[in-house]
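User: quick one - fold this with zinc ion bound?
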Amino acid sequence: MKTLVVLLLCSLSFAQQKPKLIVFISIDQMRPDYFERYEKQFTGGFKRMYSEGIVFANATLNYATSETSPGYATLSTGSYPGTSGILSNDWYDPKTLKRVYSVGDSTALPVEGEGGGYSPKNLMASALGDWLKEESITSKVVSVASKDRAAILFGGKRPNYAFWYDRKTGHLVTSSYYVKTLPEWAKKFNAANWIDANLPPAWNKLKSFSEYDSEGPDDLQGEMVWGVGTAFPHPFVLDQRNEQILTSPWGDILTLDFARAAIDGEKLGKRAATDLLCVALSCTDYVGHSFGPNSHEIHDHLLRLDIALGTFMGEIEKTIGAGNVLFVLSADHAVMPLPEYLSNVKKESARRILVDKEIFPKIAALDTLLQREFKASEWLISRYGFLNYAAAKKAKIGEEKLERMVRDSLLKIDGIVDVYFRRELMNKKTANRPYLGQFQRSYYPPRGEDFQVRYCENCLLTTRPTGTSHGSPYKYDTHVPVMFMGWGLKPARVDREIHSVDVAPTLARILGLKPPKTVDGAALKEISK
Ligand SMILES: [Zn+2]
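Assistant: Sure. Structure tokens for the protein plus zinc ion:
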């Protein structure tokens, strides 16, 4: 009897120990070094996460395709792209060679927005929100982002809601996959026209100009033109504001305000069960793409986001109780500095490779050469990563011979440093070589190409003469923040290497959920009271 009472008390106190609300925040394209660089200037949410949280300083994606869709699918499912099936933002179907958008779904209709319908139908793994709702039917799962793919993949297969920003209307919308109509509180939010009420006439610097000098001049070589120029101020143009807001801090502030409305509207964290709110802040990505991670723009963006996050977190704690909320912060990927910044300021060897000029024509020339050599009547190699094995067979070229020739020829193209073929990516016993594991973990055979290419480090693959990007397996793209704060956790710094795939299993353990056996990540032992 005594044991039973003790057991009962134990399980009761354990139940009470679960957070009432998990706020899982992901900052699109967030680099961990921002926290060090701007530590002295942060006063809000970033400061709190970094100083009061458990900070994993050495967290990486551990897979090759450092893009948004696999980033969110990995954070939510605890599985690599090779398991979740979300191997990139979009891919070419190996059978039809038609482009597939990771969250595209022709059967889903837009609700309140314009354009196509979206859903997680391509997501092959269940996510944290799904595990939570399976275990506790009264728990609510809500996902909010400015990007459709971020909101959808972060939310999992069956959240209560996933909302994203619609560029045409300037509103937060969803699709018929989730609901037929927006909840009343969301309609009310949209009706209040946030942009009219909150967007200033121009994006100006928050602090005095001298406080931004540490990173070099405002007008760095390689920055993209935003509106009228590459330096502050950046005026908003009336008929372009719905689009321009995304390349500004206000796109993220809008998302946070909507997330706050969702907490009130859905009464998140106010019932007996744990709720999950996923918030993806995507505008860091747009600003980073345009100006790079060393720009005054990203610096200012982060200063403003830090303040907005601080307010957001403080208000949640006030309504739900500080000890009842667990905040988690991570990112879908990081970003490469502008190659011009690396070479001019850092004196590192770096360059911009214009794929349309420097890569694709060479692959087309290789195809012509191979066709002529083997008297083949059809294409043999496509720039999208496919080989025409059937045509090669007709021309009496064996599969491995074709691959050897393709590999040798591709390696002669300036910028390409390795080629990984389907058979190598599918076979776990392939002799190890640099980045093979990362490419294997990114590879989902039914959707994968016949070959994947690795480009040189500090080489930006792009179609544009300005701006920067991500997508490589290198550390500048794959080193991400992972932080847990609140719910009575004590601040700590952890230096061992962990991966973004570990976050969802960690939250599952806290909530007593059972993720499927296919999950690739492991619960982080440092996260316990
Ligand atoms: Zn991006």
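One thing worth noting: Residues 29, 68, 285, 289, 470 surround zinc ion (CB under 6 Å).
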